[in-house]
Structure formats: C-alpha cells, structure tokens
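I am still learning, so can you show me any protein sequence you like together with the matching structure tokens, please?
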Amino acid sequence: MERAVVLLSGGVDSSTVLAIARAEGFACHALSFRYGQRHMAELRAAERVAAALGASSHRTIAVDLRAIGGSALTDAIDVPKDRTLAAMAQEIPVTYVPCRNLVFIALAAGLGETLGARHLFLGVNAIDYSGYPDCRPEFIEAVERTLAIGSKAGAEGRPFRIHTPLIHMTKAQIVRKGMELGLDFALTHSCYEPDAEGRACGACDSCILRRKGFEEAGVADPTRYREP
C-alpha cells in the first residue's frame, strides 16, 4: 500500500477525505494540529475519526498561531454569527487564519518525506469554503509546484502530489460521499465556538454551512447544538 499523509481537522470535509483516501487503498497517516484554536473539540473529533476509519497512524503537531493572531479562531476577536451565504461569498471572514493551510501543507510534506509518503490529502473546498483564499485550486497548484522545487523528494524525482477530492463539490455532495463510504458524521465536529460540553453554536459560518449540507443532502444532521 502506498502511504499518504491526510490532514485531519475532525470536521466533515477532512473526515470525508480520510474515508476517500482509505477507500482508494492508501495507508493513511492522519495529521492534526493544535494551533491555538479556540475550538479544541475538533481535535477530540479528529482522534475519534482516525480511530474509526483505521488510520495507520495519527499524530497532532503543536504550532501556536496565536503568536501572530489576526483571526477570530486564535485571537480575542468575536466569531461572526448568523451571516448570510451571500455575505460569506463576498469577503474573507475574520475566522481566516493567516497562511494556516500553507503552514499545514508544509508540515504535512515534511512528515511525508520522513514516512516515504508522496501523497498528501486535503479537505479544501472551493465552493462552500467561507471565502478562504487558501482553499482555491490555484493555491493548491502553486504549493504543489513549490514542493516539487523545494523538497528533497521533489529534487530526487519523487514530487508530492496534493489530492483535493472535494475541491469542486458542494457540502451536500460531500455529505453524500461520506455516507456512501460509511463515515459516521456523529464523530465529527465543525463549530468555531462550541460550549464546554462540545455542543455546536449553530450560528457561526461553519455551523451554517454544515447544516445546509445535511439539509440539501437529505441526511439527518447528527450535530449536537446548544439550542434545539
């Protein structure tokens, strides 16, 4: 089995990507990050998903992005609530963490070099993506080219391939794909600001997009929300 490093946040998208990579026959090494995010419940979800889907390994790397701040996920900035889908599509929200995906992909590639894994799987999405610039196809293509130039693997003729199987899918399509592959979405977590019991707020961008995906997929949403 070829090895792959799969970035796993514990949310709907990354968990579905892990299920896809496993279904395609890869030995999956899941990688999560403790980056100073306020929603630490996602790391517990990542542990549950990695175990349930039979990841070959799962590690969590600490990278404290609170040191640079600038995001509602890592700084003393309010998480936006009850935004419309139109508003999400028109601007980069304050939940954007500066250069987070660039940092995560670089570390995933570093792990890939040590494991002999030239395949990297990401759950980025260019449709229901909350306006994040580092979820677009052109960003992924540019990073892949950079890794081919700036890594030992690339210099030796074994360039990394970045897999983004969800990049052109709607959230509903992602939910259906996860269901098709037997993913238990009750194990996942999406909320940017859950309470102490891990219940989702139901009003942040991530909760809104998650709920929309389940509704459009015609699948019952297993999320535990604070309010019914």
About this structure: The chain has a mean pLDDT of 94. The radius of gyration is 17 Å. The chain has eight helices and five strands.
